[in-house]
Amino acid sequence: MLVQQQQRQIPSTPIPGNARKVIENFSYALTDAIGKGFSSIVYKGRNDETNEVVAIKVIDKKGLKTPLHYQLLRSEVEALSQLNSTNIMRLYKVYQTENNTYLITEFCDSGDLGQLISKSGIQKESSMQKLFYGIIQGYKQMKLRGIVHRDLKPANILLKGSVPKIADFGFATTPQTAATMPNVNVGSPLYMSPQAFKNRYSEKSDIWALGVTLYELLFGQVPWQAGSERELAQRMATVPVQFPGYISDECKDFIYRCLIVDENRRASVEELENHIWLSKQELQPIKGNGFSSMFRSNQQHNPHQLLQNNNFATPLVDNQNKQSISFQQRESNYGKENAITIKQSQQSIMQQPLKSIKRVQESRKESQISQQMNQEQSSQREDDCLNDSKKNDYIILAQLNFCRYLYRVSALMDKYRFVQTPYLREKLLFLVNKNIMIKINCLNEIIEGQNTLGLEKFQQYIQNPQYSKLCAAIHQYNQKYTLQFNTVWLSLQNPDQKQLLVVDKKFDAVFDDNFTEYESFYIILNSILRSAIKEIEYQLESKIVIQDTQQLLPIDIEGGVILLDYLITYFQLASLIQECFEDPYEFAIDSKIEQIADGKPVRLTYGHYIEIRNKIKQLDI
């Protein structure tokens, strides 16, 4: 076993003004060491040009005794230089001298997760959800770059404020270095997977380490302990995980998925990102703070009030004719989504494991013409009762909720691989995430003082205290969605793949990171949406034999039906945006996007599938 690269905390002492080591525009005090590792010392330093605090890792070349030690150092630099994530410690500069190598990195001021356990004890499950969501986002970029850490553990996940930062890549491998270190056993035994004990490392060995890390944070101990590495490896492979305290069933499942001995069945980082335990902490719509409720006076006079039975009539528009879809809240193991409701006259109760879920069904009592008239009259009443400030809030909230909906569309496309035409899925996944960024960019311009949404009395409005809350929400969403777009964007930059993507000249016209909103974007989007919808419909048609309409769809088919449902709704929303391109308030009114974004799915039936196929025919997709 190699000597493990660890940081040991060293007491900090005041920085004497005359004892600073200078490396170009960076400097540090020799007495301001904050950690020590194999052949290296880490100092708290600063960028003398900007006064930014940095960490400076000084590696003594005399301590690098073998070619393997040099290879480990090269791998660390290679790995960090390829990564740029909020949740990975950033590498700023590398300097070489005759005696030392200097790594200038981001300074994390709040210690590491190991110290968090030592100082604060076991952690609350709720606080770990947000923390691990960040870690997963960082690891996604590592996977994208083909980087395996090989030594993930609490001590190697730093904290900058409350933001987790994956650090210490001294044992990491990249695609260029992975094959150069055969038969080298590295890492910390308590966090190593059964495969790592046999010198087999991959994404799945890091996933195991994350599962052990979460377990330790929640219970103050690792899942397995033993007197030797051999005994430890045997216990890992034979003794089931036990939980010495209470945590939710969702959290237990998250840990179980990380600690499956068979690495082929162990969760991937994408599966963990979409796991229900993390989706519970997903950014929610702005409610309870005066925004949503201000648009609802009473059920009689306000068409936007949520009815007690949670059914909504939501008019959407295609290019030729106005259609209407009925949405309702529903729930499943996937998370918070929406889907088309079967219109029936009776209510029914559907049982699912662990909980029963009520699905309300109702018949349509009005004709389409009557609904359109009621819609116009209700919209007029809405205009009369809203003042300018509330109307502006409503417009902004609609844009945010549209982004929330698209984020779920992206997650579903990643989860259900029913689009198989070469590069069609990649094109659509890119367009969905670019659409999110187009809307977020528009909202960011509002924050910067540009009235891109045509808000009423803009200069007065930005003085409103409610506006400040909305700005904070926009900033929070922007960080989350920007990270996801960058991940998708970078995944499509392989030259060979990119060349095949841009063969489609229409797609090539929007295949960039320019987030200015043009109507042409939605025309191209809907063209690609049509292709994806037709392909999924064709696949499902060949697999589904219609039975009792109340019977649940098979699990392996249901995912395709859910995805189809979402893409149809997206098609309608994109069409509505084109019709309301110069009037974002009309989009907010007609789409009822908040209700759509808040929907919860139930298990789908054959009847749902029939309704979805009928909707495709109605929209002439």
Describe this structure in words.
The chain has 621 residues and is an alpha+beta fold. It folds into three domains: 20-106, 2-Layer Sandwich (Phosphorylase Kinase, domain 1), CATH 3.30.200.20; 113-279, Orthogonal Bundle (Transferase(Phosphotransferase), domain 1), CATH 1.10.510; 293-619, no CATH class. It is built from 20 helices and twelve strands. The protein has helices spanning 67-81, 113-120, 125-144, 203-219, 229-238, 249-258, 269-273, 276-279, 368-385, 388-415, 424-447, 458-461, 465-491, 495-501, 505-508, 519-543, 555-579, 584-591, 593-597, 606-619, and strands at 20-23, 26-37, 40-47, 53-60, 91-96, 100-106, 157-160, 163-166, 311-317, 322-328, 348-352, 355-359. The strands form four sheets. Strands 1-2-3-4-6-5 form a six-stranded antiparallel beta sheet, with helices on one face. A two-stranded antiparallel sheet has the order 7-8. A hairpin with a 2-residue loop joins β2 (26-37) and β3 (40-47).
Number of strands: 12
Low-confidence stretches: 1-17, 282-385
Largest pleated sheet? 6 strands, antiparallel
User: In which range does the helix fraction lie?
Assistant: 40-55%
| Order of strands, widest sheet | 1-2-3-4-6-5
Mean pLDDT: 78
Spatial shape: globular
Strand content: 5-15%
Q: State the end-to-end CA separation.
A: 61 Å
The helix tally amounts to: 20
Number of domains in the coordinates?
3
The Rg value, from CA coordinates, equals: 27 Å
Structural class: alpha+beta
Short description, anyone?
With 621 residues, the chain is of the alpha+beta class. It has helices at residues 67-81, 113-120, 125-144, 203-219, 229-238, 249-258, 269-273, 276-279, 368-385, 388-415, 424-447, 458-461, 465-491, 495-501, 505-508, 519-543, 555-579, 584-591, 593-597, 606-619, and strands at residues 20-23, 26-37, 40-47, 53-60, 91-96, 100-106, 157-160, 163-166, 311-317, 322-328, 348-352, 355-359.
